[in-house]
Amino acid sequence: MSRLSRAELQLRTRAKVLAAARAEFAEHGYGDTTIDRIAARADLTRGAVYSNFPGKRALYFSTLTPHISQRAAARQVTTPAEGLAAFASAWLDQQHPGPEVLTEPADLGTPYAGLLGLNAVLLGLSLDASPARQRSPGRGQDLGRMIRISRLALTLLAGADQLTSAPGFVQPFAVARACAHLADIDVDDPWRPPPTSPPIRPADEAWSPPAVTDEVLGRTADLDGVIVVLGLNRLSAAEDVVRTTDGPVTIALVSSSPDELGPLARYTTGALLGCLRQAVPGLQLVHDEDGVLASALGCDVIGDDLEFAASVADGRIVARAESFGAAHAIAQLLQNTCGR
Fold first, then answer.
1. Are 141 and 105 contacting, i.e. CB atoms less than 8 angstroms apart?
2. Cβ neighbours of residue 162 under 8 Å, at least 6 residues apart?
3. Residue partners of 107: CB distance under 8 A and separation at least 6
4. For residue 322, which phi and psi values (nearest 5 degrees)?
5. What's the pTM value of the predicted model, to 2 decimals?
6. What is the pLDDT of residues 107-121, one digit of tens each?
7. What's the half-sphere exposure (Cβ side, CA atoms, 13 Å) at 4?
């Protein structure tokens, strides 16, 4: 029998850690599970666990993510109300982390809020793509309203998630109906374009895109149009892009702590995408923990406050911008170019 390579041994160890952690979390919950108990269950050392995962929270999200990777069963949805009801029903069938996971010290507040805002953009785009919206006059001008409604729906569902400790109180069918009714309410739209924009740097460079996965469709991303690299503290810029251009957009998520925050990002966006019954037109989502896509675009410094955007056309990088407002600036450039 041939000996396992170092990489194969590491994969086997990681799988053992995940299996042990999954069992521990299921039996004892997040609060009472410890790294020592996971290590003992996996018949490994504490150091072996930490060599694969930075801590208990990252390990917890890593055990959840495979369960939300499958898309919801296809179903014909014709209106935003039907889309919200179907989404809410699928959401309430999922397992979601309790508040003790998200209120641990360290840093989750801003990144998690940004990820929830990104989820609202994804859900809003999906609702805006329903057949009834496609047929309505002025379709596309009301995307902002769909995003605001999506925020309200996610708020309602988050509240329902936290009441799982009160069996019988949450009635999933009633919650899904309440989400459906949100489609018809009037909501204020506080969004405004960024007040300032960085300079756009024209370019004319051959583009050799890396092979990265679009999480929306689960296939290799087609890297053309606007590509925006966002740190987890700058995810609000995703809404700036989709409200500025209807051209192809790719959002790549990066972090200065990919081992810690990467599992959170994958879980949070995957939980939403797994419940959608409608398409998310014009938007691709890439988890770029290794910074491969960012580097290929010419972005060398990765951080949670990063906002970097590039325009790609006909196999060439034609423009870049970086810092606050970069995503909007490049999206506006593409929209103006396409509108000529």
1. no
2. 98, 99
3. none
4. -145, 145
5. 0.86
6. 677 898 999 999 999
7. 8
